[in-house]
Specification:
With 333 residues, the chain is of the alpha/beta class. The chain folds into 2 domains: 54 residues; 277 residues, Up-down Bundle (ADP Ribosyl Cyclase, Chain A, domain 1), CATH 1.20.82. 45% of the residues lie in helices and 9% in strands. The protein is built from 15 helices and 6 strands. Strands 2-4-5-6 form a 4-stranded parallel β-sheet, with helices on both faces. A two-stranded antiparallel ribbon has the order 1-3. Strand 5, helix 14 and strand 6 form a beta-alpha-beta unit. Helix 4 packs antiparallel against helix 5 and helix 7 crosses helix 15. The chain is elongated. The protein binds 2-acetamido-2-deoxy-beta-D-glucopyranose (4 copies). The site of one 2-acetamido-2-deoxy-beta-D-glucopyranose has 10 residues, from helix 7. It catalyses: NAD(+) + H2O = ADP-D-ribose + nicotinamide + H(+). Belongs to the ADP-ribosyl cyclase family. GO terms for molecular function: NAD+ nucleosidase activity, cyclic ADP-ribose generating; phosphorus-oxygen lyase activity; transferase activity. Homodimer. InterPro entries: ADP-ribosyl_cyclase.
Length: 333
């Protein structure tokens, strides 16, 4: 009771402090400790919450990482290795997922390198049978329709690594362990050595290097800007736009010309067969097998001792187009 009196009488504070009972002192001490602990805890929590905001990731001009990137990668890996190609059932999807994110997390997204992806490449190595590689340029949909029907044929996106990454976007930040979901470097506006462009160049190169026997390429004869005026540089200039899955029309155009044809092995690849396809009902065919751009392609390959053939509107692929437009006159003969 006396304790209570003391604490509630402020005028007696000074002398009172020395007469405090042991019990009160212990109580005060405990109270102080608790208070201190609470303060420290609050400081830590606030610190943790504020930290990312203290160093926000850099802002870029390109779209940010695909939401749920890691989950998508893992899910696709299991889908591919367990359901689509069970012969790859031994692949370790957990490790593949980790190797993928480790390739770019906590790194400057403008200094991505082939080296970053080496472990991922190793974990996803896959043997593609000879005579079954299909390249494409500006014909993504049709080429994939073709390999979907011909399950023995493979575009890059039909291999494990291509299947996992197709259509995704990703980047990290040098100052954080997190992915950057806000923005990522745009290949033209920011930097060309960004994680996505470097990835596609790296895996395209391996895909081309591993190709053997007769290989095919599906080309789009119905686009003007792809192959005309800039055609030679499109095939020869190493700084030409990289593949970007987010913008297939504008920038996915030249991985074949810039990376893939230069990495075909003359000893392994006997012939490259080009199919120049035209849109059904398209107003104008910009390119055919007799276009100068095809000559350029032929020339590049001949210098590398790879023979080349070209066919306009290759029938097996034309049939696929005709499924969608059965009434078109070109489909009725
Ligand atoms: C050619 O490219 C255009 C524009 O990207 C696309 O709409 C069309 O489907 C493509 N045609 C073929 C045959 O791939
Ligand atoms: C590839 O896309 C870029 C961006 O739109 C375009 O400027 C360029 O002309 C295209 N290249 C070819 C060869 O079509
Ligand atoms: C192509 O073959 C010719 C003769 O068969 C040879 O002299 C030349 O070195 C080869 N070129 C390449 C790039 O392999
Ligand atoms: C080319 C381009 O659009 N660059 C822009 C990228 O984003 C920064 C700011 O985030 C702008 O200042 C640039 O103009």
């Amino acid at each position: 009771m006396s304790d209570h009196r003391f604490s509630s009488v402020p005028t007696e504070e000074e002398p009172g402090c020395c007469h405090l009972s042991r019990k009160v002192k212990v109580c005060l001490c405990v109270l102080l400790c608790v208070l201190l602990c609470v303060l420290v805890a609050v400081a830590v929590v606030v610190g943790v919450l504020m930290w990312p905001r203290a160093t926000p990731p850099r802002a870029w001009n390109g779209t940010g990482s695909t939401p749920h990137f890691s989950e998508i990668v893992l899910g696709r890996c299991f889908t591919y290795t367990q359901l689509l190609r069970p012969e790859l059932g031994h692949a370790d999807c957990g490790q593949i997922g980790k190797a993928f994110t480790n390739a770019f997390l906590s790194k400057d997204p403008c200094h991505s390198s082939e080296q970053d992806y080496q472990l991922l490449l190793k974990l996803t190595s896959q043997t593609i049978p000879c005579h079954s590689s299909v390249f494409w340029s500006k014909s993504t949909q049709l080429a994939h329709l073709y390999t979907r029907v011909r399950q023995d044929m493979f575009t890059l996106e039909d291999t494990l690594i291509g299947y996992i990454a197709d259509g995704l976007n990703w980047c990290g930040d040098a100052g954080s362990y997190e992915m950057n979901y806000q923005s990522c470097p745009h290949w033209r506006k920011d930097c060309i050595n960004n994680p996505v462009s470097v990835f596609w160049d790296t895996v395209s190169k391996r895909f081309a290097e591993n190709a053997c026997g007769e290989v095919q390429v599906v080309l789009n004869g119905s686009v003007s800007n792809t192959f005309d005026k800039n055609s030679a540089s499109a095939y020869l200039n190493p700084h030409w736009p990289r593949r970007s899955v987010l913008n297939p029309v504008s920038s996915m155009n030249n991985t074949f010309g810039r990376v893939e044809i230069h990495n075909l092995h003359p000893g392994k690849v006997s012939v490259l067969k080009a199919w120049v396809m035209h849109d059904i009902g398209g107003v104008y065919s910009y390119h055919t097998c007799s276009s100068p751009i095809i000559d350029d392609l032929k020339f590049i390959l001949s210098k590398r001792n790879i023979s080349f053939t070209c066919e306009d509107d290759y029938r097996p692929i034309k049939f696929l187009q005709c499924v969608k437009s059965p009434e078109d006159s070109s489909c009725r003969k």
